[in-house]
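Worked example

This section walks through a single chain of length 312. The input is the sequence exactly as stored; nothing has been trimmed or padded.
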Amino acid sequence: MQAEHYNGLIAVWKEQGYTSHDVVAKLRGILHQKKIGHTGTLDPQAKGVLAVGLGLGTKTFDLLPDHWKTYEAEVTFGVQTDTEDIWGNVLKIHDVSKTPEEIIQAICSFGGTYDQIPPMYSAKKIDGKKLYQLAREGKIVERKAVPVTLKDIQVLSVKDNKARFIVTCSAGTYIRTLCVDIGKKLGCEACMSSLTRVMAGGFSKEQALTLEKIKELADKNELESRLISIDTALGHFPKVIASNEFEKQLKNGNAISSNAVLGLQEASIDVCSHDICVRLYLNNNGLDEFIGVYHLDKSSRLLKPVKIFYRN
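Given that input, the structure is written out below as tokens.
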């Protein structure tokens, strides 16, 4: 018997050819629930880890920390396309005579922070319109460079005019553009020729499930055990506990005095919107029941709800 409703987060292995929206649409059909969303778009021609929220899990997205993302990519030198990847229209092809040592040095030189100009074929908006929409109209607009950080970048192989590398980068990094920038460093054209996301949203590829596997587990009513619970996903916020005398106040979404909880001292290092944020639990007959994320109003010393995850 399939569970009627799921709440939490799950890592999905997106296959090449699917959009991130396609994955969400298929999950809605498999799980028979509408409230499903993803935490970060992955290009249709890319494959890999897509972090997905189910039910109340979709409410966590703006509370999740900015996790690093890790990609395995291939760059092809001597080819320029309009989309910065091999699937776009080819604009130029030329020979490249660079040694493997020169290529490795160029790729590794991007470790750290650099200013990256977002590609025209991207979902980034300018004046309310997505860049790829403008690009399809044949328009090219000026884009401001955005600082991105590559925490780690390593070359896996170099063969002929191609190189494979693995990179861990900050949110908002375009690997297609990185490939083009590597080419510029070498004095040649370049484009991305494959992309696999191996870690995103705190999920690794080992944790990711294919849509087929998710359906199999859901049909057996075994999917629940593969979800990341909401309070676990929000584990970067310190835990505080209120006694059951405050049950009615908390379950009605009311604020409570900071003096009413245990564990607040350990929360002093976590700041959200200039206020201390915590995961608040209700101790009910010895069991800690997760209520939601609260912030401490420093002037009133009240814990006020940011988001409530309690379910009747």
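What to look for: The domain at 69-197 is CATH 3.30.2350.10 (Pseudouridine synthase).
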